[in-house]
Amino acid sequence: MSRFRNLLLAATGVAALGAIPVATQAQQTQRPQAQSQAQAMQPAAKKTGLGRIAHPDEVKAWDTDVRPDGHGLPPGSGSVKAGEELYQTQCAACHGEFGESAGRWPMLAGGAGSLNREQPEKTIGSFWPYASTAFDYIKRAMPYGNSRSLSDDEVYAITAYVLFLNDLVKEDFTLSKENFLTVKLPNQGTFYDDDRETTERSFWKKEPCMKNCKAEPAKITGRARMLDVTPDSKTGPKVD
Amino acid sequence: MTSKFDDSAQRSRRAFLRGAAATGATAALATKAAAQAAAPGKPDPLITDIQDWNRTLGPGVDAAPYGKPSPFEKHVVRRNVPWLTADAISSINFTPLHELDGVITPNGVCFERHHSGVAEIDPTKHRLMINGLVDKPLIFTMDDLKRMPGRINRPYFLECAANGGMEWRGAQLNGCQFTHGMIHNVWYTGIPLKTLLDEAGVKASGKWIMPEGADSAAMTRSIPIEKAMQDCIVAWGMNGEALRAEQGYPLRIVVPGWEGNMWVKWLRRIEVGDQPWHHREETSKYTDLLADGRSRRFTWIMDAKSVVTNPSPQAPLRHKGPNVLTGLAWSGRGSIRRVDVSVDGGRNWQTARIDGPVSPLSLTRFYIDFDWDGRELLIQSRAMDNTGYVQPTKDELRKVRGTNSIYHNNGIQTWLVRGNGETENVEIS
Questions:
Q1: Do A63 and B269 touch (CB under 8 A)?
Q2: Any chain A CB within 8 A of the CB of B79?
């Protein structure tokens, strides 16, 4: 009995608190029925005051991102020489002594001139548009399994060494916040914004073909079976 | 629009067959007299004998406080392709599309892609920061977010841009789980990202946002502010319960219609800036290398696509006579207007029946009910969205893009069904 009374009390308490929301709900039912999902979301109401102001040290702790224009680069520097030692102890086991990859981990160097070949090799030197991306990524996510363990000077040094492995800087080079923008990656100019809506215009067809769309019966030109790399082995089905 | 679907739904199985039969031997799906088989000589012991489950008691309530599928469904699981990646920590597995129906993906089989494994985060220790070009940099706890006004629920597909990426050079993997399974479709619960951005006050110079993950990969992507304000969600729920850990518990960003990599999991920070960041996931990865060696970048939208999930290599035909062909269609540009199906390798097409919700940027389910006489079939499906975009053939795509682009392979899939029902992933002329 007493448990029920408590429940009832709690329920009435909630009802009292709920007086205002109930009124709002009533208003809402007078509005046109549920907005369609395609419709943009409603403009936000007045500020809620929820959340709190971030402390500058909190922002500093998480906001480590770096952009191609150098925005976000921390103070510091590191030489190719210092980077070699760090790289060989902390990175080479996966990425290879020369960035060529040990096994199936990503390659970090090489592949120049391979992008229009049948087996392109996309590395920092051959493919990446900006050196800032390497600095940012190594700092946020490497070494794999021990992220955020490198000091800023160490990240400069390792980035310098990876650039050296790609023949983009000399052996005696020291990379720093000050000279960072002097490093240009060779493939930068070959990226362009999504142009599917113009170059693939033909995929917008009013009426796709429905009948007699091909002169000849379709012929099989390739089978997964031939290069069967499917994980499960399959037994033929039984048809009744 | 609905009535259009209804019209096509009313076309009978026979009409479909007539269309197919008109096209010659390879396309024909013959009809069979619609009569039941005669009673067997001996009765079925499953009926005449008393089975264990007819007699004994089963487990009571609470035997499984959080229920699981029947043990007879234990084959309905995500699977991976171990040779694809160097290890399982930075890897991907695939949704078993051929075992599912309707449009909603159950939480436990939504494909996974992690770059540093599944982060385990106590929600009371999770924080979301909004910083950069805002009037006030803010910190939110999960409790704060759940007190925000304007909570919404939306169903959206999430497709990895690399879905089908292994198939650019030709048919490779025998199973729609592997060729198309980097997709799932769930209901998200959360608040519009706009609410949070408005709370912080985006400065006039703020043109881009960058969500960042709390896992040790600290995933980042650049998203234009228009998209952020239009329909992105900061979500904590999927299909009515909390996000699964592998889907970013306790918080992820939802970027409807755009490639899955942008839907940063374990979301801990959103920075507002005046330029894109050109980070690793939008330069080294998720750019589309074309045949001439140049690359498209910022190819965010997932174009219209479809696949027949049954029959498919993992779900062969097992019976002649009546069968149900089904599949999924979706578009990152809007909603699915129509799905056509061919059984003769694209010479002739029939509009499929759509059932269930046709919701923008969400999976749409289609069916063709047909009779099979045991002839070889070359099955294809072709989606069309409400912008008029028609799913291209693989050859049409290759003509524009070559075979090195990895991402955004939305070409038409062909399944060969042999006379014994066995179904194979093939390419055709």
A1: yes
A2: yes
